[in-house]
């Protein structure tokens, strides 16, 4: 994108080109991408598992409530239903809290992955990479990664063409 091109100095581009020459950076980026995909799949699986557990919990509670209502004497039914409503609300509140905690855990883990990636690329000497939480700098780093990935794809296409 042109706003990023204006922000990238010729020095940064030149340093990036030098870092890409031997192919090591491509391998590092590929490894980081694979780690990120595995992490995302794992986190998604954990969230799906929690959702499944919650669904089972609510179904079990619903069936228990239904059974209790069928065994209940008619004059006690309003009291039973009120108690069951409170129990259902408490379970739903607990579910919301557990989902919120899971989502926070996911965000923290993904943020840590970003920091790990920034650190790895900085240590590898890739220009433009350092640990930051500044949204503009993160966008710039994401664009640099996209550029590296596109160059990597072009290089592998060229290798196939000459093979």
UniProtKB/TrEMBL annotation:
InterPro entries: Gonadal (IPR010849). This is DGCR6 protein. It comes from the Eukaryota. It comes from Syrrhaptes paradoxus. Belongs to the gonadal family. Pfam families: DGCR6.
